[in-house]
Amino acid sequence: MTTAPLPLKQAGLRSLIVNGRVLHPHGELLNASLLIEKGRIAAICDDAPKVDQVLDARGALVLPGIVDLHGDAFERQLLPRPGVQFPPELALLETDRQMLGNGITTAFHGITYSWEPGLRGHDSAFALIEQIEQLRPHLRCDTRIHLRWETFNLAGEQHVAQLLRERRIDLLAFNDHINDIRDDLQAGKRHKLGVYTHRTGLDADAFRDLFEQVASHAEQVPVAVARLATLATQLNIPCASHDDDSCTTRQRFNHLGVKLSEFPVNQEVAELSRRLGNPVILGAPNVVRGGSHCGRLDAMQAAAQGLCDVLTSDYYYPSLLRAVFLLMERNGLSLGEAWPLVAANPADAAGLHDRGEIEAGCRADLLLVDDSGPLPEVAMTLIGGQVAYASRNCLAV
């Protein structure tokens, strides 16, 4: 298995993918060759132009790379066990390899900036952002920042505003988990309390005291949200609201210019989002597992009803590729209908109009996917026309 860019030919030269089934933007599969020039798609062609490198797809699907708007499984690489933390550069490089092997070519790392200390606190969040920025030359996946701001983190508002002004955030999400945490504490859920103490490093009493202090400032939250939403809109940075729990919530965020509805909790909110023209983002693990792990909107059913625009890896990178094929098997979707949920649609939602489709001029972020076995498998991942991952040798001789 190869994960480093293969030294087949110099980057930026002409390459040709042959013997593949190429997914056309109109949705049909074409038995054609794909020409790549200087890191971009040049043409879908029937002939064999002279090139520097030929890759033999051997009948595999040739698909646009996956664009993952929300993935936070990297947290397991940072903190795999309670009290056991690893260096961020090690965690991020390992995460990069995992994403490439699962077909993710553009990744928005969901970094939570919370009022909590520890894994999701100020120091950790900013250290992770800085580490990603430093490592970008070494990361093969196009890695971006999806900042998940907990709205009760009022002390962090100005920090978020500065990150926006400096263009260090690519997507801003408004998270509000205060009621969920309150319910867990009032119900005496020991497992959930253990999760909170694990990631914060606080004992149970200290966590409860901090929670009560933070929750007491609820009246200041809407104004802070409005200020940051306005700033992000002015800077043309896409925004999402996380776990919209009512139509009133979605309407309020839509009015503020927050157009992405990430994980709406029920069908009513998803239907309103569609009427408002707000893309609905759901989790691919929800599809793979056969439903939400917390009893919310079923992503498989939502997709069948046309209420899902984008799938994300959420907490499990392998789920994206698998979810597409499950939607095809169980909902009867064609590949041309299902693949945009992980490629063209998320790219469009994030304002990345140079990727997500196999079309002349787009970035040559591409996958060769072997669908002949019991599960689809990424045989090769190309980033900007360069081989970044390969589970088999596709170099034609």
What topology emerges from the helices and strands here?
Blueprint: E1 15-23, E2 29-37, E3 40-45, E4 53-56, E5 61-64, E6 66-71, H1 75-78, H2 88-101, E7 104-113, H3 122-135, E8 142-150, H4 157-165, E9 171-175, H5 178-187, H6 190-200, H7 204-215, H8 221-234, E10 239-242, H9 247-255, E11 260-262, H10 267-276, E12 280-283, H11 284-289, H12 299-304, E13 310-312, H13 319-331, H14 335-338, H15 344-349, E14 366-370, E15 377-383, E16 386-390
Parallel strand pairs: 1-4, 1-5, 6-7, 7-8, 8-9, 9-10, 10-11, 11-12, 12-13
Antiparallel strand pairs: 1-2, 2-3, 5-14, 14-15, 15-16
Describe this structure in words.
- The protein is an alpha/beta fold and 397 residues long.
- The protein folds into 2 domains: 15-64 and 357-390, Roll (Urease, subunit C, domain 1); 66-349, Alpha-Beta Barrel (TIM Barrel).
- Helix content is 36%, strand content 23%.
- The chain contains 15 helices and 16 strands.
- The protein has helices spanning 75-78, 88-101, 122-135, 157-165, 178-187, 190-200, 204-215, 221-234, 247-255, 267-276, 284-289, 299-304, 319-331, 335-338, 344-349, and strands spanning 15-23, 29-37, 40-45, 53-56, 61-64, 66-71, 104-113, 142-150, 171-175, 239-242, 260-262, 280-283, 310-312, 366-370, 377-383, 386-390.
- The strands form 2 sheets. Strands 1, 2, 3, 4, 5, 14, 15 and 16 form an 8-stranded mixed beta sheet that branches. The chain has an 8-stranded parallel beta sheet with strand order 6-7-8-9-10-11-12-13.
- Strand 10 (239-242), helix 9 and strand 11 (260-262) form a beta-alpha-beta unit.
- Helix 9 (247-255) runs parallel beside helix 10 (267-276).
- The longest helix is centred in the N-terminal third of the chain and has 14 residues, at 88-101.
- The radius of gyration is 21 Å and the shape is globular.
- The two termini are 19 Å apart.
- Mean pLDDT is 93; it is low at 1-10.
